[in-house]
Amino acid sequence: xxxxxxxxxxxxxxxxxxxxxxxxxxxxxxxxxxxxxxxxxxxxxxxxxxxxxxxxxxxxxxxxxxxxxxxxxxxxxxxxxxxxxxxxxxxxxxxxxxxxxxxxxxxxxxxxxxxxxxxxxxxxxxxxxxxxxxxxxxxxxxx
Length: 143
Description:
Elements: H1 2-41, H2 45-48, E1 59-62, E2 65-68, H3 70-80, H4 84-87, E3 89-101, E4 104-114, E5 120-131, E6 134-142
Parallel strand pairs: 1-6
Antiparallel strand pairs: 1-2, 3-4, 4-5, 5-6
């Protein structure tokens, strides 16, 4: 009986650690998403891109077109959102953050842009990966 109680205590401590880790990861990822929203709303696309993996292996899919590379993604943002009339005010609504592995999560949600040239809204799915101890977006699909 003593061993059974000990086993239950040990098992529950792993469960709590695991849940704590999931909650911390989700919080860290939400912090990045919230910072990106703030950076976008400050019309600072360079800072917005800090959430992305600075690599040629970053993938971005939107408008039926797959692009790769951090710099190409930044350049596309700058081309399509030239000033505050086009970038407007961004609001993210995150619906789901789920682990893929201990070092990767997918995030699904909606975005809404309120802007002078006409509002825009759609959905997104992004993949975060822990790289060098930091969470970075390695893939983004928005429509």
